[in-house]
Amino acid sequence: MARILFVEDEQAVLDTLIKFFTKEGHEVWGARTGTDALELADRYKPDIAILDVMLQEGPAGVDAMDGYEICKALRETGFDRPVIFLTARTTEQDKLVGFELGADDYMTKPFSLLELKARVEARLRRAGGARSIFRFGTTTVDLDQYAVVHPDKTEKLSNRERDLLHFFLSNRGRILSREELLKKVWGYKSGIATRTVDTHVLTVRKKLRDNAQTPIFIETLHGVGYQFIGKES
Ligand code: CA
Predict the structure, then answer these.
(1) What pairs with residue 147 in β-bridges?
(2) Would you tell me which of 6, 178, 202, 210 could form a disulfide with 194, CB atoms 3.0–4.6 Å apart?
(3) How many angstroms separate the alpha carbon of residue 183 from the centre of ligand 1?
(4) What domains can be seen in the chain, in order of their start residue?
(5) CA 133 to CA 141: how far, in whole Å?
(6) CA of 158 to the centre of ligand 1 (A)
(7) 41 and 70 in contact (C-beta within 8 Å)?
(8) Prediction pTM value
(9) What is the spatial distance between Cα 175 and Cα 227, in angstroms, rounded to a whole number?
(10) What is the pLDDT of residues 173-189, one digit of tens each?
(11) pLDDT by residue (tens digit) across 159-218?
(12) CA 137 to centroid of ligand 1, rounded, Å
């Protein structure tokens, strides 16, 4: 599973992309404008970005970034994951512009979803797959190693703790209810005592050295659920 950001101004095309890649098991976000794209990239830290080059102006008429400009802006904010351009332009010159701006691949429209899927997977493989390492100041979460690494100590995570932390990292900024966590992380349908979630959150929080009163990673929203608020640095 990878986290994919699509930028495409044609709603129908965007819907098709989101539907197809969600069905493939990926976590997908879609934006129609540069502003939205940058905001989503900042918030959700996707593993790969697929950018349409030619974008119409945004609803307010002020947002006229094209795919190239979005790519440049993403790179300037430190986004170092693969970028693939989707475009109707086919000239060599256009491709060169894209590569100069830090694109990794290029697909011309009309494209086949299966080919795009193959290219996305190839790019992700080359980039080392979906992200597994997340740095928060001196705390590093390494999902592949099932570990939270502090300068003086490494805390190992159990399978469930790792899955829980992975889900938090994939849904940062979102408020997650205990029911949703039970469903998505534990695979329970419903009707299970929710104490399980709290116990695991407590352990994960401890391993992150987070403090429930003044959290910097996982915030408790009483009567609602939890929210991952950690900021990567
Ligand atoms: Ca377009």
Answers:
(1) 142, 156
(2) 178
(3) 37
(4) 3-126 (3.40.50.2300), 143-228 (1.10.10.10)
(5) 6
(6) 45
(7) no
(8) 0.64
(9) 5
(10) 889 999 889 888 888 87
(11) 999 999 999 988 888 899 998 898 888 888 766 666 889 999 999 999 999 998 999 999
(12) 38
